[in-house]
Amino acid sequence: MKVVLILISIVFITFIAIQIYALKTQSSIETYSYEVHQKYKTFEIRTYEETLFTSVKLSTSGYKDSSSKGFSILAGYIFGGNERNEKISMTSPVAMTLTDSMTMMFMVPKEFSKETLPKPNQSSITFKKEPKRIVAALRFSGWANDKKIEDAKQKLKSALDQEGIAYSNRFCFLGYNAPYEVFNRINEIIVELK
Fold it and tell me: Which CATH number is 72's domain given?
């Protein structure tokens, strides 16, 4: 019984240490910055500046398969899978387009331009500049999955329709937390406004 209690204590202490580490590192990660223009009950209107992303188009559909595969490919690139074996800082959030063929994107740290980024070892990785854009954003918490993402997307569409705000069909999922983070998980659905 004593051994079991010791093991449970070790697991608990390790878990707490990982969560504290996650909270500290999250605050130092460069994020996709925006300016809020107006807040509504369930969503807000934002402007994002022109930003460069690394991206990979995925043949799989559905959040679970696409997010795992896309994250693996892009993380490989920023952790040194490039012509210079150069590590590139992680940024937040990780973005995924919500279309028939999903694209996963990592924001490029501002210190880089398209010309100064190392060439990826994987030919499926491309660099994509997202133009300045105005979006509506709806936030939800917890672990993301296909159902939660679709529910949030429908909730955002319904709220925009109710307010008479015209929007495009360019929906995107934003995930802000590392896979090992348990507390304060933040996810968002954004859509470009017309």
Answer: 3.20.80.10
